[in-house]
Request: fold
Amino acid sequence: MVRPLQQQGIIMSASGQSLRTPKGDRIAIVAGLRTPFAKQATFFHGVPALDMGAMVVQDLIQKTGLDPDLVEQLVFGQVVQMPEAPNIAREIVLATSLPVKTDAYSVSRACATSFQSAVNVAESMLAGTIEIGIAGGADSSSVLPIGVSKTLARALVDLNKARTLGQRLAILKRLRFRHLMPVPPAVAEYSTGLSMGQTAEQMAKSHGISREDQDKLAHRSHQLAHQAWEQGLLTDEVMTAHVPPFKAYLERDNNIRENSELAGYAKLRPVFDRRHGTVTAANATPLTDGAAAILMMTESRAKALGYQPLGYIRSYAFSAIDVMEDMLMGPSYATPLALDRAGMKLSDLDLIDMHEAFAAQTLANVKMFASQKFAEEKLNRTEAIGEIDESKFNVLGGSIAYGHPFAATGARMLTQTLRELQRRGGGTALTTACAAGGLGAAVILETE
Amino acid sequence: MNKAKSAFSLDIREDGIGVVTIDVPGESMNTLKATFADEVADLMERVESSEALKGLVFISGKPSSFVAGADIRMISECETAADAESLARQGQALFDRLEALQIPVVAAIHGPALGGGLELALACHKRVVSDSPKTVLGLPEVQLGLLPGSGGTQRLPRLVGIQQGLTLMLTGKQLRPKQALKLGLVDEIVPQSILLEAAVKQALAGKPKARKPKLNLVGKVLEGPLSSVLYSKAREQAQKKAKGNYPAIDKIIDTVKHGMTKGMQAGLEYEARCFGELAMSPESYQLRNIFFATTEIKKETGASGTQPKKVKKAAVLGGGLMGGGIAHVTINKAKIPVRLKDINHEGIKNALAYHNKLLQPKLKRKIMRPTEVQKELLMLSGTLDYSGFKDADIVVEAVFEDLDLKQKMVSDVEANAASHTIFATNTSSLPITKIAAKAARPDQVIGLHYFSPVEKMPLAEIITHPGTSDGTIATTVEFAKKQGKTPIVVKDGAGFYVNRILAPYMNEAARLLLAGEPIETLDKTLVQFGFPVGPVTLLDEVGIDVAAKVAPILADELGARFRAPDAFSKLLDDGRKGRKSKKGFYRYDAKASGKQVDKSVYELFGISPANKLPADEIAERCVLPMLNEAAWCLQEEIIRSPRDGDIGAIFGIGFPPFRGGPFRYMDSLGIAHVVERLEHFAKTEGDRFKPCALLLDMASEGRSFYPKG
Reply:
C-alpha cells in the first residue's frame, strides 16, 4: 500500500529509508536454503561450521541453477569462531564452486549475525557495488575452539622467544598442573559476567513472565514447527544433509518434539535459579549446529535472469542497549525503528517472526511491544509499538523448537517468513531478533 | 627451402653454463626423433670443443612438457630387427657421449619426462625437477611391448636399485616429484619459477660423485648375493597377470640382469639387441597400433566439422553403482559439478559414499589435499526433484532398464532442464531409438554407455539413433573424454557393439560348460588367451540375472545365432545371480579361501565335469563367435571402422591388447583362415558359427581390414 505512494514521489518521514539501488531496484531475496538444525553433538558432531556453511552455499547454487560466476560477493558469519579459518566467508568461496574472484568477508553480530550479513549484501547493492550476492551464517556447538589457560598461552609465546635452555626452564617453572587444563569457550558475557540464561531469568522476574506462559510458548513453538514439517512447508528450504563418511543423512531438524505435551514441560527444574527461577531447558533454545544462506539480487537482475524473488527487504534497523538489565530486549527497540523507516505500523504487518532465544525473553518483548509505559519511558514515543496478534506471530514456531545455530538463525527466519508470506498470498512481515551485547535487529520484508 | 627451426638450441650464459633448450618446432610436446641426430651431434661437438663451458643444463622450451618420449613412428618405419637395433644404438651412443662429458650436465625437468625423455635425463649427471603436478617421470615402454632402448635399462637400476628399477620398467608407472626424490631418481625439487636457476646452481657446483642406490638391509641382500631370487621373483610376479603373452617383460628382466652382472657396455649391447627384437614382435606391433588408434580418437570430435559445446554442469539420474561412478568421474576427472537425482535420499547417500570411497585413497596417498577432497565432495549435490536441472548442459540417465521409465525420464528432463540440455542414457540393452521415440527434442537424445566399474573401465560407447544431431554427438564425445574415457561412436542396435560381440562369446562358454568342461578350465583357458578374467567369472560379476534379461532381447532382434543355452532360469531359480547375491558359479561365502568354484552348480545341471577339449579349441570356440559378430557389426555399420571395433573390444571387454583387437586379430590370422574355421564349426556345432557376408567377401577377394604392411 505504501509503495505506490513512494513511487508517486511522496516524501517520507525524516527517518524513512529508501532501499533502492542507484538504478532504482529493490533488494530481492531470490532464494534461501539451510541445513537441518541438529542438537549439539548429534548429526553434525565433528562437522565444523565452515563445512556446514560450504555445504549450504554449494547446494543453494546447485539447487537454484545459478551460474556461480555471477556471484560477486559472499558475506558470511559465525559466532563461535574457528581459529584455523577466521574468515569463514572466504573459505566457503574457496571450498565451493564459486569462482575465486568472488569477494568475501565475515561478520559477527551474535545471534543476529545473518541479519547482519544479509544487510551487508543489501548495502553493497544500495551503494551500486554489486548486483548478486550470497549472505548467511553457520555455527557449530559441537566443534568448539577449546583453548589453553591464559598462563599457559603466555608461557608458550615466551617459550617461542626464549633462546637459552635456562630461559626455557624458567618459563616452564611458572606453570602449575591446573594451567595445563583445556579451557572451553566462555558461557558468560564478556562485559557482564552473566550467562544468557541468567539474563533470561532476570527478564522473567522483572516483567512477571510466568513459568506457565513460558512453557506454553515452548509447547506452541514445537507444535507449530512439527506441523510445518508434517505439512511439507519446509522441505524446499531445508536441504538434506549428507556428511562423510556418508553412513546416514539428516532430512529434518532433530530438536523438534513430535509429540509435544504441555504437561511434560512442567516437570523440568529451572536451570539458572533452582529456587525461584522459571527458565528451564525446555523453554529455552538448545545448543544447535547448522547453517543457512540466502541468495540476493537486485530486482531487475533477478528478473533478467528469470528468477521470481521470494520477496524484498523493505527496511531494516539495528539497536543497542545496556547489557546489565533486559539485555535481550533488542526486538522492542529495533522494531519501531524499522517500522518508521518503512513508513508502517505494526498493525500493517501480515506476519511477525521473533527469534525465541528464551520463552521468557520472547514474552517480555511481546509485552513491551504492547506497553504504553515502555514506549514512553524507553523509546521516547507517545504510542506503544502495538499489540501482537497471535495469529500472525511465529506462525511456524521459532528457535525454541528449531534450535538456534547462532549465526544461521537470521537467514532461517528471512527465508521461512518470506515463503510463508508467499503461501498467504503476499504482504509484509517483520523478522526480529535479540542478540548478545544488548543488540537488536529488525528487518521488514515485502513480497511482490 | 628454409632451414627448419632446430629443436635444440644452445645458449651460453655469462657464468659459463650452457643452456640447451629443447623445443621441437610445431609440436605441443617434445618427442625425440631420429632426424635430430645430426643436429644433436653438432651440438655435442660445440659443447665438447668449447673450453669456456663450465656446465650444461637441459631444459624444455615447452610450457608443460620436458620430453614426453621418443617418437614411436620411428619404430614403425624400421623394417628389420637390425634397423631397430641400430636406432637404439644411435640413441645409446648419443647419451653415452653426453654422460662422458667432463663438465657437469643437469636436466631441469618440468612436465612429463617419459621414455626417451627420462633416458636423456638419466644420462645427465643430476636431475632437478619442478614441484608441479604436471611433472611425472617414468619409462612406459613396456606398455608398447618394448623396453627402454637408450640406456634406460642400465642407468635406472644403477641409480635407484634393481628392485625399484624393475618395478618402474615392468609397470610403466609414472612417478610424481616427491616419489622420484625418495627413490633417488632426482636430486632436487624446486618451484618451477626457479627451475633453471636451481639447475644452473647444481651445474656450477660440479659433478657429483658416483653414488649407490639407497637400499635398506633387505634391499642390500636382495640386490647383492640373492639377486637371482630377486629376478625370478620379479618374473613370477609380472607373469602372473601377463601369462607369458608379453615378451617385453622377460626381455626387460633379462637385460637388467645381463647388464648388472656383465657390466654396462654388455648391458647396452644386450639392450639394443632386445629392443630390435621387441620392435619387430607382433605384440609390440599391436600395442603400438592401439597407441596410435587412441591418439587418433583423442583428436576426433565424433562428428566431423562440428565442435563440442562446453559442459559446465552435469546431472545424473539414479544414484546406484553406475550413477555414483559416473558422478565421480564427472567431478574428479572432468571437474564438472554434478546434480544427482534419485527417488530417495538413500540413493543419494550411496552415491556420495561411493564418491567419497574413491576419493579417500587419493587423500591418503597425498595426491589430493583435504580441502580438494572436500571441494569435490561438495561438487556432488543430491535432489529428489528436478531442482537445479535448469542449467545442466547434459543429463546422464542411469536408472533401471525399463523403457517406460526411461521415456518418462526423457520427458521429465525436457520439461525441467534447459532447451539445450542433452539427454544421455546409460542403457546397456534398450534401443536408443525407442528411448527417444516420444522425445520432443529427439536430436538431443543419445546413448552414453559406461562399463562397470565406471571409474576403472576406460571405454565409453556413444550410441546415436538416426535423429541424434552432430552437436549432441560432439558434446557427448567431449564430455566422455573429459571424464577420462576413450569414446567410440556406434549406431543404435541391440547390444550396441560391445555387449553384442560379448554375448556370443559368453553363450559359447556356457555351452562348453553345459557340455561338461570344468569352470576353472574355461576361465583359465581364456585368461591364458589374454582376457583379464574368464567368461564364467565375468558372468558372475556382471550378474546372471542381467545376462538372462539381455539374452532374449538380443535373440529377438538379431536372430537365432544369439539364442542362449537354456541355463539361466535354472540358475536364477536356485538364487544364483552371481557375486551380488553371493551365489553364482564361484563361492562368495566367507569360508571359501581364494577363488573356488561352487561345485553344487554342476549338480544343478546334472553334469560331471571333465576336461575333454584341448585348450586352443576351447579358446577358438569362444573367440570365433566374437570375431564373427564384430565383423557383422562392421557390415551393418554399427561401428564406423575396424579401428573403433578394436578399441571398443580392448577397452570395453579387455580383449587381449597384444592381439590388437578383433579386427587386427582376424587380419593376423588371415580372413580366409577365420572363415574356414567358422565354417568348420558351423558344420560340427551349428549355424550360429556361419561367417557373415562381409567375411566371406573379404576372404574370396583376399582383403584385410587394415591396409597390409
About this structure: Chain B has a mean pLDDT of 94. Chain B has three domains: 8-280, 314-492, 499-638+670-701. Residues 231 and 237 of chain B are 10 Å apart (CA to CA).
